[in-house]
């Protein structure tokens, strides 16, 4: 059987005339990122473990808040941004933990780290995957929340804030989840590491969302939006630089 | 192909490798034996760029580790204790994913060839989480050879394999050597190591304690040598 299908090329094709092994071309950076995202989405489409947990948790949080805060219409407007971002943050943490646990459980993280690609490509792939999961959950939570609280959340500016906040959350969360996954107490460790670091993103997102929902002047919204953009850029850049050291033994 | 000098690695205060000097020529097949906790897996992880040594130098295929790790990784095929496979992907999807990560040309054809080789063609569309330990190990071997690596690092690759799969791996490893590839394999099976690998190194208490040629030692004497080295 092995002779029928050659597993290995003849040695002449991997060495030059001096016997030196030829340097192999590395896979394109973008393709490696796309492969990681595809893998995460395909696996999740099958198991629905991660999305299922995030979604059930998010909907439960909204329901609990709905019953706990028996509020008039005006007060509802003021608490909406806080309730929304608490829901996104908690559901996001669940997803981040699970997403990295899948990599660790069968040693798949080693499989990823053995790939001959720049490790920042692995980081971007995992971050994009986590961001997609967060956005899907948010896309289901928003209409549910609108229906329960009778608040219109489909405002373009608010959707931009949610996108920017989710990018920052997924960027920091993926980095810290890769760190926490090495520990035995990873489930407890991630929120403890994540929330203090991601606090500026959450505060900026809550303030910007609140300003949009209460129809404040753009001059009161822009500072928070700018802060979100700056944090997103800084967090992504820092995470890209340190990911290699975080995941190595 | 591999050259380590005075390699030291400790986890916390516990030393695992205590100055390992280990050289492997290109095309050589070395079996690395040693008791549990001797440092075999740690040595392989350092060679695979998955762990950093605390002291000492490592060169693989002329590249320094960990500085030039990405160049080394493209030449490595690694089989470890864990399968490194995604349970929620099929056998075919797992290989396709790793093939993309290694930039394997003609990927679909190569995936088919490898599945045939490891005897999992019929199960190619089944989820890996439904595979037995042996089937996962077969696929793990397929994953390791998918990109036709120049250096194979195998950490107890026979674990979980049934008789047929073990013979398949025997054939594959013989093929690896005749095609000029380099293999370092850890094992607890002395007779299999002696029958496959022309050179046997014994790692004990964090150092290479003995290095023998299989041809120069009576297979029946190997257990005695092993015990004398590891219990010295």
What are the defining features of this structure?
heterodimer, A: 249 residues, mainly alpha, elongated, B: 232 residues, alpha/beta, Rossmann fold, six-stranded mixed β-sheet, four-stranded antiparallel β-sheet, 8 helices, 27% strand, globular
How would you describe the overall organization of this protein?
The complex is a heterodimer of chains A (249) and B (232). Chain A has 249 residues and is mainly alpha-helical. Helix content of chain A is 77%, strand content 0%. Chain A is built from eight helices and no strands. In chain A, helix 2 packs parallel to helix 5 and helix 6 runs antiparallel to helix 7. The longest helix of chain A has 33 residues. The radius of gyration of chain A is 22 Å and the shape is elongated. The two termini of chain A are 39 Å apart. The N terminus of chain A is likely disordered. Chain B has a domain of 120 residues: 3-Layer(aba) Sandwich (Rossmann fold). Chain B contains eight helices and ten strands. In chain B, the strands form two sheets. A six-stranded mixed beta sheet of chain B has the order 6-7-8-3-9-10, with helices on both faces. The longest helix of chain B is centred in the C-terminal third of the chain and has 16 residues. The two termini of chain B are 30 Å apart. The model of chain B has no long low-confidence stretch (mean pLDDT 89). Classes of the chains: A mainly alpha (249), B alpha/beta (232). Chains A and B meet through helix 1 and helix 4 of A and helix 2, helix 3, helix 4 and helix 6 of B.
Brief summary of the model shown:
Chain A is mainly α and 249 residues long.
């Amino acid at each position: 059987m092995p002779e029928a299908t050659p597993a290995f090329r003849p040695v002449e094709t991997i060495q030059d005339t001096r016997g030196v092994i030829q340097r192999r071309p590395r896979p394109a950076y973008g393709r490696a990122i796309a492969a990681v995202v595809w893998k995460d989405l395909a696996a999740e489409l099958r198991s629905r473990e991660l999305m299922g947990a995030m979604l059930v948790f998010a909907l439960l949080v909204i329901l609990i808040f709905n019953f706990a805060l028996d509020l008039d219409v005006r007060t509802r407007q003021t608490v909406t941004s806080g309730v929304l971002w608490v829901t996104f943050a908690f559901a996001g943490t669940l997803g981040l933990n699970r997403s990295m646990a899948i990599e660790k459980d069968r040693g798949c993280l080693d499989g990823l780290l053995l790939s001959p690609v720049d490790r920042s490509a692995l980081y971007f792939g995992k971050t994009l995957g986590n961001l997609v999961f967060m956005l899907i959950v948010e896309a289901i939570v928003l209409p549910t929340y609108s229906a329960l609280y009778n608040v219109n959340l489909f405002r373009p500016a608010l959707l931009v804030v949610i996108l920017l906040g989710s990018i920052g959350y997924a960027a920091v969360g993926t980095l810290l989840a890769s760190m926490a996954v090495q520990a035995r107490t990873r489930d407890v460790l991630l929120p403890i590491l994540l929330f203090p670091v991601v606090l500026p993103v959450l505060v900026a997102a809550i303030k910007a969302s609140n300003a949009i929902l209460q129809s404040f002047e753009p001059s009161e919204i822009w500072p928070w939006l700018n802060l979100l953009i700056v944090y997103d850029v800084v967090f992504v850049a820092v995470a890209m630089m340190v990911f290699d050291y975080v995941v190595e033994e | 192909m591999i050259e380590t000098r005075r390699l030291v690695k400790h986890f916390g205060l516990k030393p695992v490798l205590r100055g390992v000097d280990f050289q492997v020529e290109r095309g050589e097949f070395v079996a690395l034996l040693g008791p549990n906790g001797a440092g075999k897996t740690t040595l392989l992880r350092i060679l695979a760029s998955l762990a950093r040594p605390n002291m000492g130098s490592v060169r693989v295929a002329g590249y320094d580790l960990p500085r030039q790790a990405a160049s080394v990784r493209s030449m490595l095929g690694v089989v470890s204790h864990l399968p490194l496979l995604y349970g929620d992907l099929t056998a075919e999807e797992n290989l396709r994913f790793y093939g993309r990560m290694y930039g394997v040309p003609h990927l679909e054809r190569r995936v088919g060839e490898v599945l045939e080789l490891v005897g999992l063609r019929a199960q190619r569309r089944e989820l890996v989480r439904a595979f037995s330990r042996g089937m996962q190990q077969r696929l793990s071997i397929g994953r390791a050879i998918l990109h036709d690596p120049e250096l194979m690092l195998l950490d107890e690759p026979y674990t979980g394999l049934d008789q047929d799969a073990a013979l398949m791996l025997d054939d594959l490893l013989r093929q690896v050597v005749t095609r000029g590839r380099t293999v370092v394999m850890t094992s607890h099976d002395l007779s299999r190591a002696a029958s496959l690998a022309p050179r046997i190194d014994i790692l004990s208490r964090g150092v290479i304690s003995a290095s023998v040629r299989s041809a120069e030692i009576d297979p029946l004497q190997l257990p005695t040598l092993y015990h004398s080295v590891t219990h010295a």
